Amino acid sequence: RIGAEVKEGDILVGKVTPKGEKDLSAEERLLHAIFGDKSREVRDTSLRVPHGADGVVRDVKIFTRANGDELQSGVNMLVRVYIAQKRKIKVGDKMAGRHGNKGVVSRIVPVEDMPYLPDGTPVDIMLNPLGVPSRMNIGQVMELHLGMAARTLGIHIATPVFDGASSEDLWSTVKEAGMDSDAKTILYDGRTGE
Prior knowledge:
It is an enzyme of class 2 (transferase). Pfam families: RNA_pol_Rpb2_6. This is DNA-directed RNA polymerase. The protein has helices spanning 26-35, 131-135, 138-153, 167-176, and strands at residues 5-6, 11-13, 16-18, 42-44, 47-48, 55-64, 77-84, 94-96, 102-104. It is α+β, with helices and mostly antiparallel strands. It folds into 2 domains: 5-84, CATH 2.40.50.150; 110-176, no CATH class. The strands form 4 sheets. A 3-stranded antiparallel sheet has the order 1-6-7, with no helix packed on it. Strands 2-5 form a two-stranded antiparallel ribbon. A two-stranded antiparallel sheet has the order 3-4. A hairpin with a 5-residue loop joins strand 8 (94-96) and strand 9.
């Protein structure tokens, strides 16, 4: 089920496989000869969460021949379960935003070393400004300004993807928050205080 939390050993896909004739003991072969297929034993071959893994089920995809999916010979159904694992980011991890920007984590510093705003609030993340013009993701810049204004005003703003706040709404909110007309702010170095 999507959204389910799973841990090591949990069954993701239930599956049983009939034992072949060579897997049966002498007693089982005798019972099989007397009663037929009813006595045939099955082996549990369920897909389980591997050792040391856990997470939340994000997606389940089922491929079958009946749906016209191409499968290997001898395979009637293929089930893929995608599990998201939460972990702390580290240097070298790739991150992406919803505006088409992406980048690699190059440095992680303690919060006291991060640049901070005039009111003393430390910055959570810093992006390379060269990533904005090359991708032309002006929506990211507008969202940052609107977010800073909303934080100052103590309000939450939800903007739908294709029917969000207009630039007039954005600048009026920035003005209402008492921010500079260009929405720029000063950052102080967390290490030197300059």
